[in-house]
C-alpha cells in the first residue's frame, strides 16, 4: 500500500494524491455524473460538484481557448501542489514523521495551488479582468479548502526529503 510505506516522501505522496484527484474527479465523465445525479442545495451534492472544479476535457464542443485554459488549470493544480509541498516548511521542519504540521502543510499547499492555478489561467481568458481573476482565485481557494484535507492525509507519515 502506497500510503503505508514508511519510506515515501511527503511531497511525492501529496502530489500523487493531487494527480489522482484531478484525473478522476476532473474528468468529463465524473462531472457529467455529478451534475446529473446530485442536488446542489445539499451539502453532499455541493461537495461532489466541487470535486469537479479543475475540470479537464477532451470534448470539441468548446472553443480551443476554453479547452486549453481548463486543461492548463488542471495541470497547474498538480504542479503547484508539488511546488508548495516542497516550499512549505511544515513537512520539512517537523521533528517526527506523521505530525499535524505535515497534515496542515499538505492541506495549505492544495489551497494555495487551487488559488494560484485559477489566478494564472485567468490571464489566458478572452477578456481577463481583475475582478474575474479575484473571483476565479476565490473558487480555486474554496476548492482547495474543502478538498485539500485529502492531500494533507496523504502527506502524513512521509519523510521530509533529508535524513
What is the helix content? Answer: 55-70%
Rg from C-alpha positions?
A: 16 Å
**In total, how many beta strands?**
0
Question: DSSP strand (E) fraction?
Answer: under 5%
Output mean pLDDT: 84
Low-confidence stretches: none
Name the helix and strand elements from N-terminus to C-terminus, one letter apiece. Answer: HHHHHHHH
Label the structural class. mainly alpha
Terminal residue distance: 22 Å
User: Helix tally?
Assistant: 8
| Main beta sheet strand tally, sense and closure | none
Which of globular, elongated, flat, extended, rod-shaped describes the shape? globular
Briefly characterize the structure.
This protein has 163 residues and is mostly helical. 68% of the residues lie in helices and 0% in strands.
Top keywords for this entry?
163 residues, mainly alpha, globular
Characterization of the model:
With about 160 residues, this protein is an all-alpha fold. Helices cover about 70% and strands about 0% of the residues. It is built from eight helices and no strands. Helix 1 packs antiparallel against helix 4. The chain is globular and about 45 Å long. The two termini are about 20 Å apart.
Write the layout of secondary structure elements.
Elements: H1 10-25, H2 28-37, H3 43-50, H4 64-87, H5 89-93, H6 100-122, H7 130-147, H8 149-155
